Amino acid sequence: MRRVVVTGLGMVTPLGSGVDVTWRRLLAGESGASRVEAFEVSDLPCQIACSIPRGTGEGEFDADAWMEPKEQRKVDPFIVYAMAAAKQALDDADWHPSSYEDQIVSGVLIGSGIGGIGGIHDASLLLDERGPRRISPFFIPGRLINLASGYVSIEHGLKGPNHSVVTACSTGAHAIGDAARIIALGDADVMVAGGTESPINRLSLAGFAACRALCTAFNEDPTRGSRPYDRDRDGFVMGEGAGIVVLEEYEHARARGARIYAEVVGYGMSGDAYHITAPSEDGDGAFRCMQAALKRAGITAADLDYVNAHGTSTMADEIELRAVERLVGNAAANISMSSTKSAIGHLLGAAGAVEAIFSILAIRDQVAPPTLNLDNPSVDTPIDLVPHKARQREIDVVLSNSFGFGGTNASLAFRRVDA
Amino acid sequence: MSDIAERVKKIVVEHLGVDAEKVTDSANFIDDLGADSLDTVELVMAFEEEFSVEIPDDAAETIVTVGDAIKFLEKNVAA
Protein backbone atom coordinates (compact mmCIF):
# COMPACT_ATOMS: atom_id res chain seq x y z
CA MET A 1 0.00 0.00 0.00
CA ARG A 2 1.15 3.52 -0.79
CA ARG A 3 1.81 6.08 1.95
CA VAL A 4 -0.77 8.85 2.43
CA VAL A 5 -0.07 12.26 3.93
CA VAL A 6 -2.10 15.35 4.82
CA THR A 7 -1.13 18.45 2.84
CA GLY A 8 -4.08 20.81 3.30
CA LEU A 9 -6.55 21.75 6.04
CA GLY A 10 -9.81 23.69 5.99
CA MET A 11 -12.65 24.23 8.42
CA VAL A 12 -15.70 26.22 9.36
CA THR A 13 -16.62 25.76 13.02
CA PRO A 14 -18.53 27.41 15.86
CA LEU A 15 -15.20 29.09 16.74
CA GLY A 16 -14.90 30.72 13.33
CA SER A 17 -14.22 30.34 9.64
CA GLY A 18 -10.75 28.98 9.05
CA VAL A 19 -8.23 26.71 10.72
CA ASP A 20 -6.14 29.46 12.32
CA VAL A 21 -8.95 31.28 14.12
CA THR A 22 -10.58 28.05 15.29
CA TRP A 23 -7.33 26.58 16.60
CA ARG A 24 -6.29 29.81 18.33
CA ARG A 25 -9.63 30.13 20.12
CA LEU A 26 -9.70 26.41 20.95
CA LEU A 27 -6.29 26.57 22.62
CA ALA A 28 -7.37 29.70 24.47
CA GLY A 29 -10.22 27.74 26.05
CA GLU A 30 -13.06 29.60 24.35
CA SER A 31 -16.49 28.05 23.85
CA GLY A 32 -18.68 28.33 20.75
CA ALA A 33 -21.93 27.66 22.59
CA SER A 34 -24.79 30.11 22.94
CA ARG A 35 -28.57 30.24 23.21
CA VAL A 36 -30.28 29.54 19.89
CA GLU A 37 -31.69 32.83 18.57
CA ALA A 38 -32.35 31.91 14.95
CA PHE A 39 -35.68 30.20 15.62
CA GLU A 40 -38.20 29.49 18.36
CA VAL A 41 -36.79 27.20 21.04
CA SER A 42 -39.05 27.92 24.02
CA ASP A 43 -40.87 24.59 23.59
CA LEU A 44 -37.67 22.55 23.12
CA PRO A 45 -35.89 20.84 26.03
CA CYS A 46 -32.49 21.89 24.62
CA GLN A 47 -32.25 25.60 23.75
CA ILE A 48 -28.50 25.93 23.18
CA ALA A 49 -26.15 25.06 20.34
CA CYS A 50 -22.73 25.86 18.93
CA SER A 51 -23.52 28.00 15.88
CA ILE A 52 -21.04 29.33 13.35
CA PRO A 53 -20.32 33.03 13.95
CA ARG A 54 -21.59 34.76 10.83
CA GLY A 55 -20.49 38.11 9.48
CA THR A 56 -17.81 39.77 7.45
CA GLY A 57 -15.43 40.47 10.31
CA GLU A 58 -12.13 38.68 10.82
CA GLY A 59 -12.64 34.98 11.45
CA GLU A 60 -16.39 35.21 10.87
CA PHE A 61 -18.17 33.11 8.27
CA ASP A 62 -19.36 35.07 5.24
CA ALA A 63 -21.20 32.57 3.04
CA ASP A 64 -21.09 34.94 0.04
CA ALA A 65 -17.31 34.74 0.03
CA TRP A 66 -17.45 30.99 -0.70
CA MET A 67 -20.52 30.48 -2.90
CA GLU A 68 -22.54 32.81 -5.07
CA PRO A 69 -25.83 33.85 -3.44
CA LYS A 70 -27.82 32.42 -6.35
CA GLU A 71 -26.15 29.03 -5.80
CA GLN A 72 -26.55 29.18 -2.01
CA ARG A 73 -30.30 29.52 -2.52
CA LYS A 74 -30.41 26.08 -4.09
CA VAL A 75 -28.66 24.12 -1.34
CA ASP A 76 -28.76 23.43 2.37
CA PRO A 77 -26.02 25.10 4.43
CA PHE A 78 -24.04 21.87 4.81
CA ILE A 79 -23.04 22.21 1.16
CA VAL A 80 -22.00 25.85 1.60
CA TYR A 81 -19.84 24.90 4.61
CA ALA A 82 -18.23 22.12 2.56
CA MET A 83 -17.49 24.55 -0.28
CA ALA A 84 -15.79 26.92 2.17
CA ALA A 85 -13.72 24.29 3.96
CA ALA A 86 -12.72 22.57 0.70
CA LYS A 87 -11.52 25.84 -0.86
CA GLN A 88 -9.51 26.60 2.29
CA ALA A 89 -7.95 23.13 2.24
CA LEU A 90 -7.07 23.22 -1.47
CA ASP A 91 -5.58 26.70 -1.13
CA ASP A 92 -3.63 25.54 1.92
CA ALA A 93 -2.30 22.55 -0.04
CA ASP A 94 -1.72 24.76 -3.08
CA TRP A 95 -3.32 22.07 -5.24
CA HIS A 96 -5.30 23.50 -8.12
CA PRO A 97 -5.26 20.88 -10.87
CA SER A 98 -5.72 22.42 -14.30
CA SER A 99 -4.45 19.69 -16.61
CA TYR A 100 -6.68 16.75 -17.43
CA GLU A 101 -4.01 14.37 -16.10
CA ASP A 102 -3.94 16.10 -12.70
CA GLN A 103 -7.73 16.40 -12.55
CA ILE A 104 -8.44 12.69 -13.06
CA VAL A 105 -6.17 11.64 -10.19
CA SER A 106 -7.84 14.13 -7.79
CA GLY A 107 -11.05 13.01 -6.11
CA VAL A 108 -13.53 14.04 -3.44
CA LEU A 109 -15.04 12.15 -0.51
CA ILE A 110 -17.13 14.36 1.74
CA GLY A 111 -19.87 12.97 3.97
CA SER A 112 -22.63 14.25 6.19
CA GLY A 113 -24.68 12.64 8.93
CA ILE A 114 -28.12 14.04 8.20
CA GLY A 115 -27.47 16.30 5.17
CA GLY A 116 -30.30 18.56 4.12
CA ILE A 117 -32.77 17.72 6.87
CA GLY A 118 -33.63 21.42 7.30
CA GLY A 119 -34.50 21.83 3.63
CA ILE A 120 -36.48 18.59 3.62
CA HIS A 121 -38.53 19.93 6.52
CA ASP A 122 -39.23 23.21 4.71
CA ALA A 123 -40.15 21.49 1.44
CA SER A 124 -42.48 19.08 3.24
CA LEU A 125 -44.41 22.02 4.67
CA LEU A 126 -44.51 23.68 1.24
CA LEU A 127 -45.80 20.48 -0.36
CA ASP A 128 -48.58 20.26 2.19
CA GLU A 129 -49.54 23.92 1.98
CA ARG A 130 -49.08 24.68 -1.71
CA GLY A 131 -48.91 21.36 -3.54
CA PRO A 132 -46.32 19.60 -5.72
CA ARG A 133 -46.03 22.33 -8.36
CA ARG A 134 -44.23 24.53 -5.83
CA ILE A 135 -41.38 22.09 -5.20
CA SER A 136 -38.16 23.48 -6.69
CA PRO A 137 -36.08 21.49 -9.18
CA PHE A 138 -33.20 22.18 -6.79
CA PHE A 139 -34.96 20.57 -3.84
CA ILE A 140 -33.46 17.08 -4.37
CA PRO A 141 -29.93 18.00 -5.56
CA GLY A 142 -29.63 20.63 -2.83
CA ARG A 143 -30.36 18.14 -0.01
CA LEU A 144 -28.55 14.98 -1.17
CA ILE A 145 -25.58 14.25 1.06
CA ASN A 146 -23.19 13.35 -1.77
CA LEU A 147 -23.88 16.71 -3.43
CA ALA A 148 -21.27 18.25 -1.11
CA SER A 149 -18.73 16.12 -2.99
CA GLY A 150 -20.50 16.95 -6.24
CA TYR A 151 -20.40 20.72 -5.81
CA VAL A 152 -16.76 20.69 -4.65
CA SER A 153 -15.71 18.57 -7.64
CA ILE A 154 -17.48 20.90 -10.08
CA GLU A 155 -16.00 24.03 -8.50
CA HIS A 156 -12.41 22.74 -8.54
CA GLY A 157 -12.38 20.40 -11.56
CA LEU A 158 -11.70 17.29 -9.50
CA LYS A 159 -12.48 14.37 -11.82
CA GLY A 160 -11.14 11.44 -9.78
CA PRO A 161 -13.25 9.21 -7.52
CA ASN A 162 -16.35 11.08 -6.33
CA HIS A 163 -17.78 9.48 -3.25
CA SER A 164 -19.54 10.13 0.04
CA VAL A 165 -20.06 8.60 3.48
CA VAL A 166 -23.08 8.52 5.78
CA THR A 167 -22.27 6.95 9.15
CA ALA A 168 -23.88 9.35 11.62
CA CYS A 169 -21.29 10.79 13.99
CA SER A 170 -18.46 8.67 12.54
CA THR A 171 -18.95 10.16 9.06
CA GLY A 172 -16.01 12.57 9.05
CA ALA A 173 -13.55 9.95 10.29
CA HIS A 174 -14.80 7.31 7.86
CA ALA A 175 -14.55 9.81 4.99
CA ILE A 176 -10.90 10.57 5.73
CA GLY A 177 -10.08 6.90 6.34
CA ASP A 178 -11.80 5.69 3.18
CA ALA A 179 -10.25 8.46 1.09
CA ALA A 180 -6.80 7.52 2.42
CA ARG A 181 -7.44 3.94 1.32
CA ILE A 182 -8.45 5.11 -2.15
CA ILE A 183 -5.04 6.78 -2.42
CA ALA A 184 -3.18 3.90 -0.75
CA LEU A 185 -4.64 1.48 -3.28
CA GLY A 186 -3.69 3.72 -6.19
CA ASP A 187 -7.15 4.79 -7.35
CA ALA A 188 -6.27 8.47 -6.85
CA ASP A 189 -3.22 10.56 -5.92
CA VAL A 190 -5.07 13.37 -4.16
CA MET A 191 -8.37 13.28 -2.26
CA VAL A 192 -10.37 16.15 -0.77
CA ALA A 193 -11.99 14.47 2.22
CA GLY A 194 -14.02 15.26 5.30
CA GLY A 195 -17.43 15.90 6.73
CA THR A 196 -19.99 18.68 6.87
CA GLU A 197 -23.20 19.28 8.81
CA SER A 198 -25.91 21.92 9.25
CA PRO A 199 -28.23 20.40 11.86
CA ILE A 200 -29.20 23.40 13.95
CA ASN A 201 -32.93 23.59 13.26
CA ARG A 202 -36.10 22.79 15.20
CA LEU A 203 -36.59 19.38 13.65
CA SER A 204 -33.09 18.09 14.48
CA LEU A 205 -33.14 19.53 17.99
CA ALA A 206 -36.54 17.91 18.61
CA GLY A 207 -35.36 14.60 17.17
CA PHE A 208 -32.11 14.35 19.12
CA ALA A 209 -33.88 15.59 22.25
CA ALA A 210 -36.39 12.75 21.84
CA CYS A 211 -33.40 10.34 21.82
CA ARG A 212 -32.48 11.90 25.18
CA ALA A 213 -29.08 12.71 23.70
CA LEU A 214 -29.00 16.50 24.18
CA CYS A 215 -27.86 18.72 27.03
CA THR A 216 -30.91 20.21 28.75
CA ALA A 217 -29.61 21.46 32.12
CA PHE A 218 -27.60 24.45 30.88
CA ASN A 219 -30.09 26.48 28.84
CA GLU A 220 -29.27 29.53 30.96
CA ASP A 221 -25.52 28.91 30.93
CA PRO A 222 -24.70 27.67 27.41
CA THR A 223 -20.89 27.72 27.52
CA ARG A 224 -20.94 25.31 30.47
CA GLY A 225 -23.24 22.81 28.73
CA SER A 226 -20.68 20.65 26.93
CA ARG A 227 -18.66 19.08 29.75
CA PRO A 228 -17.22 15.67 28.82
CA TYR A 229 -16.16 13.45 31.77
CA ASP A 230 -17.62 15.93 34.25
CA ARG A 231 -20.08 14.56 36.79
CA ASP A 232 -22.70 17.19 35.83
CA ARG A 233 -22.76 16.38 32.12
CA ASP A 234 -26.21 15.57 30.79
CA GLY A 235 -26.03 15.30 27.01
CA PHE A 236 -24.30 16.75 23.98
CA VAL A 237 -24.54 20.29 22.64
CA MET A 238 -25.20 20.34 18.92
CA GLY A 239 -22.70 22.08 16.65
CA GLU A 240 -22.46 22.87 12.93
CA GLY A 241 -19.69 23.27 10.40
CA ALA A 242 -17.28 21.38 8.19
CA GLY A 243 -13.78 19.97 8.32
CA ILE A 244 -11.97 19.04 5.13
CA VAL A 245 -8.44 17.85 4.46
CA VAL A 246 -6.38 17.34 1.35
CA LEU A 247 -4.87 13.87 1.41
CA GLU A 248 -2.05 13.06 -0.94
CA GLU A 249 0.16 10.16 -1.90
CA TYR A 250 3.51 10.70 -0.18
CA GLU A 251 5.75 10.75 -3.26
CA HIS A 252 3.26 12.95 -5.12
CA ALA A 253 3.42 15.46 -2.28
CA ARG A 254 7.22 15.27 -2.08
CA ALA A 255 7.64 15.71 -5.82
CA ARG A 256 5.74 19.00 -5.87
CA GLY A 257 7.31 20.25 -2.65
CA ALA A 258 4.06 20.32 -0.72
CA ARG A 259 4.05 21.00 3.02
CA ILE A 260 3.27 17.77 4.85
CA TYR A 261 1.35 18.08 8.12
CA ALA A 262 1.28 14.40 9.07
CA GLU A 263 0.92 10.89 7.72
CA VAL A 264 -2.32 8.91 7.90
CA VAL A 265 -0.80 5.76 9.37
CA GLY A 266 -3.82 3.94 10.73
CA TYR A 267 -7.53 3.54 10.17
CA GLY A 268 -9.66 1.14 12.19
CA MET A 269 -13.34 0.32 11.94
CA SER A 270 -15.74 -1.76 13.96
CA GLY A 271 -19.41 -2.31 14.64
CA ASP A 272 -21.01 -2.66 18.05
CA ALA A 273 -23.90 -4.89 16.92
CA TYR A 274 -25.60 -3.82 20.11
CA HIS A 275 -28.05 -0.87 20.06
CA ILE A 276 -29.22 1.83 17.64
CA THR A 277 -28.15 4.80 19.77
CA ALA A 278 -26.22 3.54 22.82
CA PRO A 279 -22.67 2.17 22.65
CA SER A 280 -22.07 -1.32 23.99
CA GLU A 281 -21.40 -0.94 27.68
CA ASP A 282 -18.22 -3.00 27.66
CA GLY A 283 -16.66 -0.60 25.14
CA ASP A 284 -15.74 -3.53 22.94
CA GLY A 285 -16.54 -1.75 19.66
CA ALA A 286 -14.50 1.31 20.61
CA PHE A 287 -11.61 -0.87 21.77
CA ARG A 288 -11.52 -2.92 18.58
CA CYS A 289 -11.56 0.04 16.19
CA MET A 290 -8.70 1.73 18.07
CA GLN A 291 -6.81 -1.55 18.14
CA ALA A 292 -7.34 -1.98 14.41
CA ALA A 293 -6.02 1.53 13.74
CA LEU A 294 -2.86 0.85 15.76
CA LYS A 295 -2.35 -2.51 14.07
CA ARG A 296 -2.66 -0.95 10.62
CA ALA A 297 -0.21 1.75 11.70
CA GLY A 298 2.25 -0.84 12.95
CA ILE A 299 2.52 0.92 16.30
CA THR A 300 1.82 -0.04 19.89
CA ALA A 301 -0.21 1.80 22.49
CA ALA A 302 3.07 2.87 24.10
CA ASP A 303 3.79 5.02 21.03
CA LEU A 304 0.58 6.96 21.50
CA ASP A 305 0.83 10.56 22.77
CA TYR A 306 -2.59 12.12 22.31
CA VAL A 307 -6.14 10.88 21.80
CA ASN A 308 -8.85 13.21 20.53
CA ALA A 309 -11.81 11.50 22.17
CA HIS A 310 -15.27 11.13 20.76
CA GLY A 311 -16.32 12.37 24.25
CA THR A 312 -19.76 13.81 23.57
CA SER A 313 -20.57 14.84 27.16
CA THR A 314 -22.96 11.91 27.59
CA MET A 315 -23.06 8.62 29.49
CA ALA A 316 -20.86 7.20 26.72
CA ASP A 317 -17.79 9.21 27.81
CA GLU A 318 -16.83 6.70 30.48
CA ILE A 319 -17.28 3.74 28.15
CA GLU A 320 -14.78 5.26 25.71
CA LEU A 321 -12.38 6.18 28.52
CA ARG A 322 -12.39 2.59 29.84
CA ALA A 323 -11.79 1.29 26.32
CA VAL A 324 -8.79 3.61 25.94
CA GLU A 325 -7.44 2.51 29.33
CA ARG A 326 -7.76 -1.10 28.24
CA LEU A 327 -6.00 -0.29 24.96
CA VAL A 328 -3.02 1.52 26.45
CA GLY A 329 -2.57 -0.46 29.69
CA ASN A 330 0.55 0.62 31.56
CA ALA A 331 1.14 3.51 29.16
CA ALA A 332 -1.97 5.35 30.41
CA ALA A 333 -0.02 7.87 32.47
CA ASN A 334 1.92 9.01 29.39
CA ILE A 335 -1.17 9.80 27.35
CA SER A 336 -3.21 12.98 27.05
CA MET A 337 -6.80 12.64 25.89
CA SER A 338 -9.22 15.53 25.47
CA SER A 339 -12.65 16.15 24.06
CA THR A 340 -12.70 19.26 21.90
CA LYS A 341 -16.49 18.89 21.76
CA SER A 342 -16.33 20.75 25.08
CA ALA A 343 -15.60 23.88 23.03
CA ILE A 344 -17.27 23.39 19.64
CA GLY A 345 -20.08 21.00 20.53
CA HIS A 346 -20.93 17.92 18.53
CA LEU A 347 -20.71 18.56 14.79
CA LEU A 348 -22.23 15.12 14.05
CA GLY A 349 -21.09 14.12 10.54
CA ALA A 350 -18.43 16.83 10.53
CA ALA A 351 -17.10 16.00 14.02
CA GLY A 352 -14.65 13.28 13.00
CA ALA A 353 -13.09 15.45 10.31
CA VAL A 354 -12.79 18.61 12.40
CA GLU A 355 -11.34 16.58 15.27
CA ALA A 356 -8.89 14.82 12.93
CA ILE A 357 -7.65 18.28 11.97
CA PHE A 358 -7.27 19.23 15.64
CA SER A 359 -5.27 16.02 16.14
CA ILE A 360 -3.00 16.92 13.22
CA LEU A 361 -2.50 20.43 14.60
CA ALA A 362 -1.65 18.89 17.98
CA ILE A 363 1.28 17.20 16.22
CA ARG A 364 2.28 20.38 14.40
CA ASP A 365 2.26 22.59 17.48
CA GLN A 366 3.09 19.98 20.14
CA VAL A 367 0.08 20.90 22.21
CA ALA A 368 -3.01 19.04 23.41
CA PRO A 369 -6.18 21.15 23.25
CA PRO A 370 -8.19 21.32 26.47
CA THR A 371 -11.35 19.68 27.76
CA LEU A 372 -13.43 22.62 28.95
CA ASN A 373 -15.77 22.51 31.96
CA LEU A 374 -14.09 19.44 33.43
CA ASP A 375 -14.55 20.69 36.99
CA ASN A 376 -15.31 17.42 38.78
CA PRO A 377 -14.38 14.29 36.82
CA SER A 378 -16.95 11.54 37.28
CA VAL A 379 -14.18 8.94 37.02
CA ASP A 380 -10.68 8.32 38.25
CA THR A 381 -8.16 7.68 35.51
CA PRO A 382 -4.40 7.79 35.13
CA ILE A 383 -4.96 9.35 31.68
CA ASP A 384 -4.49 13.13 31.49
CA LEU A 385 -7.87 14.51 30.36
CA VAL A 386 -6.37 18.00 29.79
CA PRO A 387 -8.88 19.86 31.97
CA HIS A 388 -9.52 23.57 31.25
CA LYS A 389 -6.11 24.46 29.79
CA ALA A 390 -4.20 23.31 26.71
CA ARG A 391 -1.10 21.26 27.49
CA GLN A 392 2.23 21.74 25.77
CA ARG A 393 3.85 18.31 25.40
CA GLU A 394 5.62 16.01 23.00
CA ILE A 395 3.11 14.70 20.45
CA ASP A 396 4.24 12.50 17.56
CA VAL A 397 1.43 9.95 17.30
CA VAL A 398 -2.28 10.71 17.72
CA LEU A 399 -5.54 8.84 17.57
CA SER A 400 -8.88 10.47 16.72
CA ASN A 401 -12.02 8.55 17.72
CA SER A 402 -15.54 8.73 16.33
CA PHE A 403 -18.53 6.60 17.27
CA GLY A 404 -21.95 6.88 15.66
CA PHE A 405 -25.58 5.87 16.03
CA GLY A 406 -26.06 2.40 14.69
CA GLY A 407 -22.93 1.24 16.50
CA THR A 408 -20.49 2.42 13.82
CA ASN A 409 -16.96 3.16 15.05
CA ALA A 410 -13.88 4.64 13.39
CA SER A 411 -10.40 5.59 14.62
CA LEU A 412 -7.77 7.46 12.66
CA ALA A 413 -4.07 7.41 13.55
CA PHE A 414 -1.73 10.18 12.39
CA ARG A 415 2.02 10.42 12.83
CA ARG A 416 4.54 13.20 12.43
CA VAL A 417 6.53 12.99 9.20
CA ASP A 418 10.14 14.03 9.61
CA ALA A 419 11.32 16.26 6.82
CA MET B 1 -41.63 49.00 -20.29
CA SER B 2 -44.85 47.38 -19.14
CA ASP B 3 -45.39 46.47 -15.53
CA ILE B 4 -45.26 42.78 -16.44
CA ALA B 5 -41.96 43.18 -18.30
CA GLU B 6 -40.45 44.97 -15.34
CA ARG B 7 -41.49 42.25 -12.90
CA VAL B 8 -40.27 39.48 -15.21
CA LYS B 9 -36.86 41.11 -15.53
CA LYS B 10 -36.58 41.58 -11.79
CA ILE B 11 -37.24 37.86 -11.24
CA VAL B 12 -34.66 36.90 -13.87
CA VAL B 13 -32.02 39.13 -12.28
CA GLU B 14 -32.70 37.68 -8.83
CA HIS B 15 -32.81 34.04 -9.84
CA LEU B 16 -29.93 33.95 -12.28
CA GLY B 17 -27.73 36.48 -10.48
CA VAL B 18 -27.07 38.42 -13.69
CA ASP B 19 -26.71 42.17 -14.33
CA ALA B 20 -29.97 43.92 -15.22
CA GLU B 21 -28.47 45.32 -18.46
CA LYS B 22 -28.08 41.79 -19.80
CA VAL B 23 -31.74 40.99 -19.30
CA THR B 24 -33.03 42.22 -22.68
CA ASP B 25 -36.13 40.94 -24.46
CA SER B 26 -34.01 38.88 -26.82
CA ALA B 27 -31.79 37.37 -24.10
CA ASN B 28 -31.94 33.56 -24.15
CA PHE B 29 -32.01 32.13 -20.61
CA ILE B 30 -29.54 29.35 -21.38
CA ASP B 31 -27.32 30.80 -24.13
CA ASP B 32 -27.10 34.39 -22.91
CA LEU B 33 -27.86 34.35 -19.19
CA GLY B 34 -26.02 31.23 -18.07
CA ALA B 35 -29.05 29.25 -16.91
CA ASP B 36 -29.18 25.47 -17.02
CA SER B 37 -32.27 23.35 -17.59
CA LEU B 38 -33.10 23.24 -13.86
CA ASP B 39 -32.78 27.03 -13.61
CA THR B 40 -35.35 27.44 -16.38
CA VAL B 41 -37.79 25.14 -14.56
CA GLU B 42 -37.38 27.24 -11.44
CA LEU B 43 -37.77 30.49 -13.39
CA VAL B 44 -41.10 29.32 -14.76
CA MET B 45 -42.17 28.44 -11.21
CA ALA B 46 -41.18 31.92 -10.09
CA PHE B 47 -43.28 33.47 -12.88
CA GLU B 48 -46.24 31.30 -11.84
CA GLU B 49 -45.83 32.45 -8.26
CA GLU B 50 -45.40 36.13 -9.09
CA PHE B 51 -48.34 36.32 -11.49
CA SER B 52 -50.63 33.69 -9.91
CA VAL B 53 -50.89 31.84 -13.17
CA GLU B 54 -50.32 28.25 -14.21
CA ILE B 55 -47.85 27.69 -17.04
CA PRO B 56 -48.36 24.18 -18.50
CA ASP B 57 -45.24 22.20 -19.39
CA ASP B 58 -45.81 22.45 -23.16
CA ALA B 59 -46.09 26.22 -22.89
CA ALA B 60 -43.06 26.38 -20.58
CA GLU B 61 -40.98 24.66 -23.25
CA THR B 62 -41.62 27.53 -25.66
CA ILE B 63 -40.39 30.14 -23.18
CA VAL B 64 -36.69 30.36 -23.98
CA THR B 65 -36.06 34.12 -23.95
CA VAL B 66 -37.02 36.94 -21.63
CA GLY B 67 -39.31 38.27 -24.36
CA ASP B 68 -41.06 34.88 -24.66
CA ALA B 69 -41.89 35.02 -20.97
CA ILE B 70 -43.17 38.60 -21.15
CA LYS B 71 -45.31 37.80 -24.22
CA PHE B 72 -46.81 34.70 -22.61
CA LEU B 73 -47.62 36.49 -19.38
CA GLU B 74 -49.07 39.58 -21.09
CA LYS B 75 -51.42 37.26 -22.95
CA ASN B 76 -52.36 35.05 -19.99
CA VAL B 77 -52.35 37.24 -16.91
CA ALA B 78 -55.63 38.90 -16.05
CA ALA B 79 -55.10 42.64 -15.99
UniProtKB/TrEMBL annotation, chain A:
It is an enzyme of class 2 (transferase). Residues 1-416 form the Ketosynthase family 3 (KS3) domain. GO terms for molecular function: 3-oxoacyl-[acyl-carrier-protein] synthase activity. Pathway: Lipid metabolism; fatty acid biosynthesis. The keyword NADP does not apply. Its EC number is 2.3.1.179. It comes from the Bacteria. It catalyses: a fatty acyl-[ACP] + malonyl-[ACP] + H(+) = a 3-oxoacyl-[ACP] + holo-[ACP] + CO2; (9Z)-hexadecenoyl-[ACP] + malonyl-[ACP] + H(+) = 3-oxo-(11Z)-octadecenoyl-[ACP] + holo-[ACP] + CO2. GO terms for biological process: fatty acid biosynthetic process. The active site is at C169. Belongs to the thiolase-like superfamily. Beta-ketoacyl-ACP synthases family. Involved in the type II fatty acid elongation cycle. Catalyzes the elongation of a wide range of acyl-ACP by the addition of two carbons from malonyl-ACP to an acyl acceptor. Can efficiently catalyze the conversion of palmitoleoyl-ACP (cis-hexadec-9-enoyl-ACP) to cis-vaccenoyl-ACP (cis-octadec-11-enoyl-ACP), an essential step in the thermal regulation of fatty acid composition. This is 3-oxoacyl-[acyl-carrier-protein] synthase 2. It comes from Chelatococcus daeguensis. The lineage of its organism: Bacteria, Pseudomonadati, Pseudomonadota, Alphaproteobacteria, Hyphomicrobiales.
UniProtKB/TrEMBL annotation, chain B:
Residues 2-77 form the Carrier domain. The keyword Lipid biosynthesis applies. It is found in: Cytoplasm. GO terms for molecular function: acyl binding; acyl carrier activity; phosphopantetheine binding. The modification O-(pantetheine 4'-phosphoryl)serine is found at S37. One of its GO terms (biological process) is Kdo2-lipid A biosynthetic process. 4'-phosphopantetheine is transferred from CoA to a specific serine of apo-ACP by AcpS. This modification is essential for activity because fatty acids are bound in thioester linkage to the sulfhydryl of the prosthetic group. HAMAP family: Acyl_carrier (MF_01217). Carrier of the growing fatty acid chain in fatty acid biosynthesis. This is Acyl carrier protein.
